[in-house]
Amino acid sequence: MSASSRYWNIWRISPARERVGYKYCLVPTAQEFVQTQAANSQNEDIQAKLLDYFHNKKTDVDAKIRSLAGLCLRCYVSDPILKACQKIDNLFGGEKCFTYHDLLPFVLNDDGKTLVILDSDRKNQLILDDNGEAKTTAYKFFSVRVLQTFNADSQSSMSLDNWAYLQTKQNSELKDFLSEFGFQHLSDWALLNRVRPKELERLSQRSRHLVEVFHAVYRRDRLQHRSKGGTKCPDPATVQLQEMLRRLQKRNVIINTTVMLMKELKQVAMQLRQYDIWSYRQPLEIQNPDTGIYTSRADVPQDSPNELDMDQQELLESFHPRLSLALTSAIQQEIQLRITGLQKSKRYGIYAQQYIPALQLYYCQGMSLKDIAPKLGMTSWDQARRVLNPGELLSKVRTVTQEQLLDSILKAAEQKGLTQLPPEPEYLKTLALEIETFTDTEIFTQAAEEIRAGKNRSMNSVYAQELRLYLEKHKEYNND
Predict the structure, then answer these.
(1) Dist. CA 389–CA 127, nearest whole Å
(2) 214-217 contact pairs (CB < 8 A, 24+)
(3) Which residue in 288, 234, 98 sits closest to 179, CA to CA?
(4) 189 vs 236: CA distance, rounded Å
(5) pLDDT single digits (tens) 329-343
(6) pLDDT at 41
(7) Under a CB-based contact definition with an 8 Å cutoff, are residues 23 and 1 in contact?
(8) Overall pTM > 0.70
C-alpha cells in the first residue's frame, strides 16, 4: 500500500480478534474521496488539503466535503492512537493487571462511518444526518478530538502523527483507568512488595538482599492476609522484622536491630520511588510552560538504551510498513504467476483470462465457487476450485510475504550492525519465527478463516482489502 492508503483504512476495535483486539478496515467513502480530491498530490499535500477542508478554512466548502475530509484524517490518526496504547502497555511492564486491549475502548472508539464536522469555533463535534443536516451529539470520537486540537500552522507544531500519539497518552479517561491500577502514591511497603525485576537490577547487592528477604517474609504473609480479605499493605510486624534479620544474617548481611532494619528498608523504598512510574498521578509527559514542548517525566524509568537497543526497537517498529509493502508485492506477483501458469496449462488454458473476473466475484461480491462456475462457463464446482483455488493463492502469498519481509528486515538489521549477511543461524531462526507469528496475527489467520467460513463469509480481512485494491487497479488499467 502507498503512504496515502492510511487515509482510507482505519484501525478499529475487533472483539472477534482475541489475540490482538483490533483490525484494519477499508473505508471506501474515504478512499473515493482521497482519490478524487487529491489523486496527484504528495502525502504532505494531501494532509494539508484535508486539514484545510475539515477545519473549514475554505469558506466555500460544504459540510459534506468537510465531513469526508475529516473521515480521511480520522483514518490516518487511528494508527498513532493504536501505537500509543501499545507503547503504554510496554512502558508499564509485564507485572500488571491490564493490557493495551483494555486501553483501546477509551481512544480507539471511531466507527469509521459516521460523518462528523466541527462548529465554527472548532469546539464541538456535529454529526451529519442522511439529509446533510448537522446535529449535536453526546458521543464524542477521540480521533475527532485529536483533529480539533491540532494546529498545523503553529511554528512549534508537532506532526499530526506525533500530536495524535501524545494526545492519546494524555487522554483523561485513559489516565483515570490507569489510576485504578496504581498510578498514584504508594506506601513504602507497597513499593517494596511490588518491585519489578528491572528495578531490582538497579539496586546495590545489599539492597537486593533486603528486598528479596522482605519478599520472602512480607509478601508470603501478605498473600495469606489478602486471601482473608486484607487490601492495604500494613507496616511490617515485629515478628516479621525479626525473621528478616535472621534470613539476612544467613546472607552475611548484618543489621543489629529491627529499628535499623526498618530504616534501611525505607531507604530502599526511597530509591524505588525514584524509578517508579506509578508514583504520582501525572501525565507521562510534562509540558514546559515557557516553550510549550512536552518532555518525558523525570520519574519515569530511563533505561538509557545503547545504540544497538535503539536500532533494534526501530527495526521492530518498522514491521508494519514493511509488511504492507511485502503484502502488496506478493499479491501482484502470485496473481501474475497464477495467470501465467493457467496460460501454459493444456487443460485450463482457456480459463486464464477469467482468473481475474473469478477473483472479483469471490472477493468483491462474496460469491461461492459453486455460483462462480456457471458465470464463467465452467462445468462444475471442482473445476472452479482448480482454476481459482483461493486457499492456494493465500498460502503462496503468505510464503512470499514472509520471505520478502524477512529479506527486508535482514538487510535493515545488517545496515544497523545488528547482524551480518548471511546472518547467524540462531538470529535467522528467531527472526523468521517472529515474522511468521507477526504476519499470521496481522493478516493471514483471519484471511484463512474467511475462506473456511463458507456461504456466510465476510471478506473484510487486511488480505481481502489489499487484494480488492489490486483488482480495482487492474480493472482501471484495462479500461484505460
Answers:
(1) 44
(2) 214/244, 214/265, 216/244, 216/247, 217/243, 217/244, 217/247
(3) 98
(4) 8
(5) 999 999 999 999 999
(6) 65
(7) no
(8) no
